[in-house]
Target: DoxX family protein
Amino acid sequence: MAFESAGAGELFLLGRLLFGGVLAFMGLNHFQNAGQMAPYAEAKGLPAPVASVYGSGGLLLVSGVLVILGAYPVIAAGALATFLVASAVMMHNFWAVPDDQMQDEMTQFLKNIALAGGALSLLAVAGTSWPYTVGLSLF
Model:
């Protein structure tokens, strides 16, 4: 199957560690810097900006850890892909900001879209047997 070649399982594990680790760190950052992030969320028009920051932080943290562990891959990858695309469009709408903010917002938009692509790639192989996991899955 997908991980039969020499070293493929180890590379897949390394990719999960890097991908999930970055997302989990981003989630922790939401908790540690909620005071600075909530006004930004409010300025972008999110309802309940403080709760939105903590909720998105929780999603990133939990889903990132699940990716690292290889647990519930359909849930983790699906939630990440959905959140990352939605947050790219809602929070980093570079096409609707002043020129002096456009480059920063475009960079954040593209980062979220690239990460969503990674999550979709994991979702595509979520039905296969992932090497080096804790063995928890719904499917």
In short: The chain has one domain: 8-124.
